Amino acid sequence: MNKKINVISATDARKGWSQLIDSAVHEKPQIISRTRDHVLLTDVNLFSDILEVYEFTADKYVESDNSVTLSLNEIDLVANGSTEKEARIKLADEILEYSEEYYNDFQYWSKIPNRKRHISYVLKALILQDANKIGESIVCQPGKN
């Protein structure tokens, strides 16, 4: 037997807004429908769990001066530091800065074909909102020259 997902009308959502938020945070995500639009309301912690599968990965290059350059694979960002740890933090700062710019001008960036897929990484960075956590989460692999 197929059960339908309970979609809540925008009118009902407005009437029971507080209860709807409680349900979305403490029970399960809620889908709200308004004409042709459908909106998912969920807790940020659950959304963070959903985004866990999106990893920041970078190619690591040791330069001739022994500094480390990290080149992010998911978004065209590069950072260099005297150590890998320093390069990770600098790259994480770049990720956060890019994510804030992307989010603040979402109408523009989300329409560009090669930037459209960045949204999952942008949201992950904005939810983490901590350069140290982002830096620690970057998976590095040796780069190929």
Tell me what the structure shows.
This protein folds into two domains: about 5-40, YefM-like fold; about 50-140, Double Stranded RNA Binding Domain (2-Layer Sandwich), CATH 3.30.160.620. The chain has a four-stranded mixed sheet with strand order 6-5-4-7, with helices on one face. Strands 1-2-3 form a three-stranded mixed sheet. The chain is built from seven helices and seven strands. The chain has helices at about 10-15, 15-25, 45-50, 85-105, 105-110, 120-130, 130-135, and strands at about 5-10, 30-35, 35-40, 55-60, 70, 80, 140. Helix 4 packs across helix 7. The N and C termini lie far apart (about 55 Å). The model has no long low-confidence stretch (mean pLDDT about 95). By secondary structure, the chain is of the alpha/beta class.
User: How many strands appear in the DSSP assignment?
Assistant: 7
Q: Count structural domains.
A: 2
Largest sheet: 4 strands, mixed
Poorly predicted parts: none
Separation, N- and C-terminal Cα atoms: 56 Å
* Structural class by secondary-structure content: alpha/beta
Could you estimate the helical fraction of the residues in percent? 40-55%
Q: What's the gyration radius in Å?
A: 20 Å
Query: Secondary-structure element order, as H and E?
Result: EHHEEHEEEHHHHE
Shape: elongated
Question: Would you summarize the structure shown here?
Answer:
The chain has helices spanning 10-15, 17-26, 44-50, 84-104, 106-109, 119-128, 131-137; strands at residues 7-9, 30-34, 37-41, 57-62, 68-72, 78-81, 139-142. It has 145 residues and is α/β, with parallel strands linked by helices.
